[in-house]
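lol forgot to send this yesterday, sorry. struct tokens for the thing we talked abt
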């Protein structure tokens, strides 16, 4: 199982995205948090920004849609340069239709579950999915504390499928990455831990090393 670190640019300096991306040149993926002010209270950025930063970054884009109607926007994000398109089971869009649309656009579909959502909801779609995102905080804000109580959800998906990427998002740092890796996660989103560190590229290496258990 490949270990991947996906720094969240939510914690970066939006005034200097190009240079912020250069500070994380060691990363495996770039995690882009899209919030619509409906599904979560905040609004972040949309497809035009994704398109702009695609021109200056060749690391694959892991786009996390925290929006109410993802099916209406997957085409925009696909043409903007998203590589993985992740949406929430709790959104209003039909899961199967949205997954199929992402696949038909030549992109990798991923499904996310909030901390209180039963992970069983993703099981019928595992064969079509590239990745499952198990949220380790309530979506909407960076800098929250890791919720260890959701680890059984990761263990359950890993016991059913040993190949699929399982991503964790929220409160990941040098210590919590070990807990999530032990549960079976292999893709680690980190916002504050990476961007607030003095040397983001070194922090990415540390997270990768610590996940390698
Ligand atoms: C939260 C976002 C996360 C966030 C993680 O809704 O989905 O990607 O950026 O931030 P940290 O790593 O600071 O908890
Ligand atoms: Zn995220």
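and heres what i got for the seq, position by position
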């Amino acid at each position: 199982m490949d270990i991947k670190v996906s720094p969240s640019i939510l914690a970066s300096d939006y005034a200097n995205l190009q240079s912020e991306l250069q500070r994380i040149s060691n990363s495996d993926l770039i995690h882009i948090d899209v919030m619509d002010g409906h599904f979560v209270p905040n609004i972040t950025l949309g497809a035009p920004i994704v398109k702009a930063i695609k021109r200056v970054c060749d690391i694959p884009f892991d786009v996390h849609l925290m929006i109410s109607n993802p099916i209406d926007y997957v085409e925009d994000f696909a043409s903007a340069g998203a590589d993985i398109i992740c949406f929430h089971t709790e959104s209003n869009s039909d899961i199967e239709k949205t997954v199929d649309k992402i696949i038909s656009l030549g992109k990798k579909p991923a499904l996310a579950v909030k901390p209180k959502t039963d992970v069983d909801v993703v099981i019928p779609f595992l064969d079509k999915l590239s990745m499952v995102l198990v949220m380790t905080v309530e979506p909407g804000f960076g800098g929250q504390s890791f919720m260890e109580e959701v680890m059984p959800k990761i263990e359950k998906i890993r016991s059913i499928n040993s190949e699929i990427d399982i991503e964790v998002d929220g409160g990941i740092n040098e210590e919590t990455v070990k807990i999530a890796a032990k549960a079976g996660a292999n893709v680690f989103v980190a916002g504050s831990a990476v961007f607030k560190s003095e040397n983001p590229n070194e922090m990415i290496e540390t997270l990768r090393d610590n996940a390698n258990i």
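The pocket of D-xylitol-5-phosphate (ligand 1) is lined by residues 8, 10-11, 31, 33, 64, 137, 139-144, 169-172, 189-193 (CB under 6 Å). anyway ping me if u want another try
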